[in-house]
Amino acid sequence: MTARSAAALDVVGTVARLGLAAVWLVSGGLKAADPTQTYVAVRAYDVLPIAAVDVVAAVLPWFELALGVSLLLGVATRLMAVLSIGLLLLFIAGVAQAWVRGLSIDCGCFGGGGQVAPGATSYGLEIARDVGFLAFAVWLAVRPRSYLAIDGLLASWDNARLAKEGS
Questions:
Q1: Beta-strand (E) ranges in the chain?
Q2: Hey, CA dihedral for 91, 75, 132, 27, is it positive or negative?
Q3: Which residues, listed in sequence order, are joined to residue 106 by a DSSP beta bridge?
C-alpha cells in the first residue's frame, strides 16, 4: 500500500470515527437530558420486563456518551467500534421487531420516543440510518487507524520507544 492510499484510508477512518462519535454524543446527550422520556421510549418497545426497562433507560444514555467521548478522542477505537456494532444491531433489531409487530412508536433514538399515531412511523428510514452508522462502526472495527486519535499517538510513542530500545 502506498503512503498516499494509506493516508486516504486514514481520512476515511477519521470521518467514520468522528461521525460515529457525533451520533453517540448527540443521542446520549438528548437521552440524558430527559431521563423520563428515555424510560418512555425504552418501555414502548414492549420487550423488556419493567425492572430491565429501568436499568436500560438509566444506563443507555451514559453508555452512548462514553462511546462518543472515547471515539471523539480516539481511545480504544477498535473496542468502541465493536461495542457500537453490538449496540447498533440491538437498535436495528428493536426497530425491526416493533415494525413486524405493528407497534406505532417513535424509536427514541435521538430523544423523544413512545407511542405515536398509526402511520406516523418511519421504521425503514430508521433502520437504513442505523445501517449507515453500522457501516462506520464496521470500518473502524476492521481498520481503526485515523488522524487526531490518542490511539495513534500512543502507537507512535510505543514504536519510538521500541526503536530506541532496539538500537
A1: 105-106, 114-115
A2: positive
A3: 114
Mean pLDDT for back-to-back runs of 10 residues, the chain (167 residues): 92 98 98 96 96 97 98 97 98 97 94 90 96 98 95 67 65
Residue-level pLDDT at 118 = 87
SS3 122: coil
**Nearest CA to 40 among 56, 26, 64?**
56
pTM of the model as a whole: 0.91
Contact 99, 123 (CB under 8 A): yes
Residue 145, CA distances (Å) to 78, 151, 163 in order: 9, 8, 21
- Which cell numbers in the block locate residue 162? 521500541
C-alpha cell at 135: 457501516
Give the whole-angstrom CA distance, residue 90 versus residue 167. Answer: 49
Question: Whole-angstrom Cα distance, residue 29 to residue 72?
Answer: 14
Calpha distance 80→21 (Å, rounded): 10
